[in-house]
Structure formats: C-alpha cells, structure tokens
C-alpha cells in the first residue's frame, strides 16, 4: 500500500534548534509506572515507539534531585552520574530506530512529598503538598534557587552525556517548580522571583537560558508549558498570563510543547472529551513564536492531524495515549494502512499504571509493558509451530483478541459467538452514556479478522459441549465472559441481601439489554466502585428517573481516582441531580423502599425506592468449560483454556491481555509465570552520594 498524498505533510522533517525530527509525530513525555525501576523494560518500550515511526520519543518526568522525589510514583531519575547508564539505554534504543530522544528533566518543588528521601520539600512559597499529603513545602531562599539552577544545569549535562537530543524545561501539570513560580496562587514572594509576571517567570527564563548554555550546542531545548489551567483567573489562562509568558519568552526555547494543566485536564477520558479537545486553549501559541509547537489531543485520525497542521495550530502531532495504544501509528499512516491503526479508546487504564506504580498497561495494546519481560512486539508474533485449528468460543474482547493473535500466528481460526453481534461486553457498554469510543476495541479487531483468509466467524452460534468436542479443533479457548450477579454478594456483603430476589431489582446486564426500571425513584447500589455505577446513574437520569447512588466509599466511582475521572464524575452526578449517598451500604430492598445502613454509625434508615440497580460483582460464565472439563482429552483436543472474564471477571484491558497471552503461548514452551528485571548490585558496593 502507498501513502495517501494528503498525509505527505505529516512526514515532512522539522528542525528543532540544532536537531531535526524526521517527521511530525512526536511522542510527548508520558508516565509508564516503570520509570527508574526497570531500565531494560523502559528502553525496549520506548525503542518500539521509535521503530513505529515516531520522530521524537520522550521520557517521563525525570527527577533531577532527591529534594524533588515523587515516590511512590515511578518516574525517571537523573540525580547523579550513576543514573546516566540507565537513561542512556533508553536514548540508545530510540536512536537505533532513527528517532530523536527527548528527556523531561524537572524538579517537583511543592508537588512531591519526598516520601522516599524524607527530605523537606521546597517551593516558591510555603504551601501544603498536593494529594492531601500531610506535609508542607518550605519557602525557598536565594541559595535554594541558586542550587536548583545548578541541579537543573547538571542534569542537562548528564542528559547530553546519556545521548539525549532534546532536553526539556518543564512547566506544566501543576507538578513542576517552574510552573509553581509562575502561579500567583502559589507564589507570594516579595523578591525578584515574585510579584509581577516578569518576576514570576524569572526562574523559567533562567532555566531555559541555563539549559541552552549548558547543552544548546548539540541538544535542542524544549519547554513544556501549561497554556491554561481551567480555573479562571486563579490560574494561568490562554488569554491571560499563560499567553503573556509565552509571548515574553517566545523565541527563547527551540520548541514549545503546550497542553492544559493539570494532568486530569490534560488526559481527559473519552467520556468527557473528544479528539482535539485542547485546540481552543493551545492554538494561540503558534501565533506568538516562530519556533515549532507540539500539542496533544488524543489524536488518532490522520485527517484531524493534517487539519491541525494546515490550519496553523501545531507543527508536531504530540501523542501519549495514541502512541501507547498503537506504537506503530506513524508507520501505518506512512504505509497507507489507515484501517490498521489501533485507536486509543480514551479509557485511561494506562494512567492507572502510574497511580499503582506498575508496568504500563493498555486496553487496546496488550503488548504494552511486556516488550522486554515477555519479548512481545506489537506488530510481530511468532508463527505457529504445529498444525491444527483453533476454536474460540465467545467474541467479547478476550475472544476477539485471542482469535486475532492466533490468526496472526497462522492458525486456522474459528470464532463462534452466541449472539448476532460481536464484541460482547464492549458492544453493550459502548452504548452507555459517554462510552461510545470503547467500541473501538471491537471494531479494530473485527476489521482485522474480517480481512484474514484463515479466519471463520460464526454469529448466532451458541456452542454446547458436544459441538466443541466434535468440532475437531486442536486448541479451544473458552471466552464466554461473565454476568453481573443479582443477589447482592460482593465487596460489602459476603451473603445474599434480603429482597434482592424480588421484583424491580435490576443488574447492569438488565439495563444494558434495554430493561428500564419502570418505577422510581431508582437506587443504584454501587459496590463495584469503577465506572459502571456512575454510568448507570447517568442512564437512569437521562431516562427521567429520580436517582440515588449508594456507595460505601467516600465518593462515587472511587476507583476512577486512578483514571483521573473522580472529580469529573462527581461533578456530573451533582449537575445531573443524582443524589450520592456516601459511606452507605444497601442492606435490604422491597415494599417500595430501600434499607440503607451507614458504614460509619451502623444506623439503618429507609428511603422510598421503586427500583434497585445492583452493581456488586460478576460471576464467570463457565458452564461450557465445566461440561468439557473431563471430556476434552478423550476427544483428542490438545488444550481447552478459559480466558478473559470467563476465567476471572476483570477489566476489558485484562480480557484483551489474557486473550493475547493465550494465543502467544499456544504450542510454546511454558514461559516463566512472570519474567522480571532484577535490581543490579553495584560491584563496588558503594553508597552513592545520595
Ligand atoms: P470477555 O470480556 O471475557 O471477552 P464478554 O462477556 O465480553 O467476555 O464476551 C463473552 C461473549 O461470549 C459474549 O458475546 C457472549 O454472547 C459469548 N458467549 C457466551 N457463551 C457462549 C457460547 N456457549 N457459545 C458462543 N458464544 C458464547
Ligand atoms: Fe488509550 Fe485506554 Fe490504551 Fe490508555 S489504556 S492508551 S486511554 S486505550
């Protein structure tokens, strides 16, 4: 296939100070949950992005000094020369595939608690640390500022030594010290670093000048800055102080990388923002500078990308999540393989990796975070080593991915689905308010499968044990999913809840199948704590019902703190008039009332309720597997394996992952359960300076 000439503009080289990017695809700095803890893992992950065609591949935040230590988050670390080899590993992996390596050196200032180093945090002025951590940053004196500039300069020199081509000065996400100096609400200094905007921008200017002076001969110097904080005059705004700062420093750096701050604003999910959502805040920057501008907006459509460039909004298509969901996005556009692009669905499962300090995971890309430890490549998969066909039962995310990965290995694949529609839970859930983009999990896989000659798909085909035994497949994957239980058993109660076996009790499956609670008010019992309870509250509200949502947590959808959606969901509930009942469990239902028990006092009350939607837990749909359990060996089948929710109900990401893993491991020597990177022991057994 050849590239559509309309997209040629995306493949023009662009000069960034002393270096040149081969095209306009720019993987902006993004967290991985890996950071300094697993250098091989990280280097391979970033190297694959370069192989996939990104012209620039950046690190995550990289700490320059132990006074700005953001444990328990795993970010990059360049505290001293001993950190250079690990960072060089990544720069080398990126260079191997012809891309430029960028490093986002930074100091957290008043945004990190220094849990690890136990040193006092420091900030422009005395302020509490974010995340409600119970410590405060001390106000920096002049010597602290001089020290900070020296640490930044030394880190820039180390970056150059490690081989990086672009060195950042970081001033966004409300996480970096340079931004904290800019913010009026965080800077009440009375010296030349406080007061007027010019004074508050002094540190940023100095850091840019220092970095240029230190490494500017060979490295480009980029500034990542907040174009808006979405808090009006209390923060930086695109038509106020952010604009003025960028205008003031317009020609100083070699590149402007702009976004909206803080991270929840920058990485909004598809439930709250669509592709290109940042344009209204960032488009002014190019009018102020002749330097190249990078911006983000969960770009996956080449037409949108071209439009941004042609309209003078951006010079580079910045991407974090789209590069995670498809590290080969640029290559696919370059080769005219638009239908092969695996588009990000905007679920932020990747963000949960950072918040849980675990290897980067992605709903759409099961190889993410497994590049080094399992040797998985997003585009390459080992050919099959045996003859015989594969039967996959169930076409939800697990079954679709299993079928696709097995087919890519060259197996003859048969995929049977009980219903007329493929996609399983993704098809149902994508019809819920705000979740339409989740259908991409299905659509990309079905699109791929339908083009493969070695794949047969059978819709409306409920398989029973006899069918499977007679089918003649060598390997069988049971991907029959799960269903929401109705009896109330879940996290809060290990026992069935009185009244849940009565009428007017609905599960999420009922609502997704179109059964509307007929009588109100509706009580949603959210014992699940992820998105489902909140989304169903929206659904019932849009249908006109009066809605209450009870949760034992302090807030609605509490797990979404890890997907950056906690506040947006809480705000939506409030604006829709959903009454959230925190610290409350549902302990009975019937007779037109719900019984509520306070988890704080044990007090029980009753509220009128005509319908109950119970969101507690799911049960595997594993009857077919049980029927096959002791019979398949005799039928000459080599393996029957449960995957996805049928094995253990979990996230869509985990369903896709287990389907992929199953296909990768067919006929392979059983790998280690979890290969891992071991910490290296310093041969000299020397204590580092810090
Ligand atoms: P997962 O998340 O594990 O992929 P889903 O619940 O999304 O699970 O999908 C399971 C799919 O399996 C559903 O589309 C369902 O209709 C289908 N299914 C369940 N039982 C059978 C069966 N016996 N034969 C064929 N398909 C089945
Ligand atoms: Fe996109 Fe979700 Fe993958 Fe993150 S986890 S890159 S949001 S698909």
What does this structure look like?
This protein has 690 residues and is of the alpha/beta class. The chain has three domains: 5-356, Aldolase class I (TIM Barrel, Alpha-Beta Barrel), CATH 3.20.20.70; 389-481 and 621-664, NAD(P)-binding Rossmann-like Domain (Rossmann fold), CATH 3.40.50.720; 485-619, FAD/NAD(P)-binding domain (3-Layer(bba) Sandwich), CATH 3.50.50. Helix content is 29%, strand content 18%. The chain has 23 helices and 29 strands. The strands form seven sheets. The chain has an eight-stranded parallel β-barrel with strand order 3-4-6-10-11-12-13-14, surrounded by five helices. A hairpin with a 7-residue loop joins strand 8 (127-128) and strand 9 (136-139). The longest helix has 20 residues, at 142-161. 55% of the residues are buried. The protein binds adenosine-5'-diphosphate and iron/sulfur cluster. Adenosine-5'-diphosphate (ADP) is lined by residues 393-399, 416-419, 424-425, 462-463, 479-482, 621, 624, 644-646, 655.
